[in-house]
Amino acid sequence: MFIFYILMALSFFTIFINGFQWIFRFDIYNANYISFSFISTILYMFTQSAIMFYFIGAGKKIKEIILENDLDKKIYQKVIDIKNNLFPALTLNILIVGTAFVLGGGVQTKALSKYWHYFMFYLGLIHYIKVILLQHKSLIENADILSDIGLALDKLEKNKGV
Fold it and tell me: Which residues contact 16 (CB under 8 A, 6 or more apart)?
């Protein structure tokens, strides 16, 4: 899970720096705003996709363990609640950041006013802070669920051993 925190911080930092790079027109390792926006957006999309796949995979495994060991099915409802809470906000943020990236191209070709790009960029950045906090909360809740399942399996093992 620690890798997710590193990826979230790194992707937020690169997107944040990319915004400053566009405003103040400076290069990072000979990468101008346009080049660096590719890097920051790809890192961001990779991070969000990895987090989504983690929750999908963890949820599937939790469901399998519950069914295999005939554990309380209420535990899986917590997994569904996490996904119902996290995925809409995460998907919306991916849409906003992706739109800001595309609008940046429209601004560079002078087909679009820069204010549309500014608006979507700052909206995406502010919303991303909310998503990061939600991801953090969801990762903690998921760890608690895994701990509960581990305790339930231990209890089941002890009862079988008696």
Answer: 125
CB 18 within 8 A of CB 36: yes
| Chain centre distance of CA 146 | 20
Cα radius of gyration (the chain): 20
Q: What is the pTM of this model?
A: 0.90
Convert the pLDDT of each residue in 74-120 to its tens digit. 989 999 999 999 999 999 999 999 999 999 989 889 999 999 999 99
Q: Which of 66, 59, 55 is nearest to 152 (CA)?
A: 66
- Which residue from 18, 17, 20 is spatially nearest to 37, judged by alpha carbons? 18
CA dist., res. 162 & res. 160, Å (int): 6
Instruction: List, as one string, the DSSP characters of 106-152.
Output: HHHTTSS-HHHHHHHHHHHHHHHHHHHHHHHHHHHHHHHHHHHHHHH
Adjacent-strand bridge partners of 31? 28
Is the Cα dihedral 14, 4, 119, 111 positive or negative?
positive
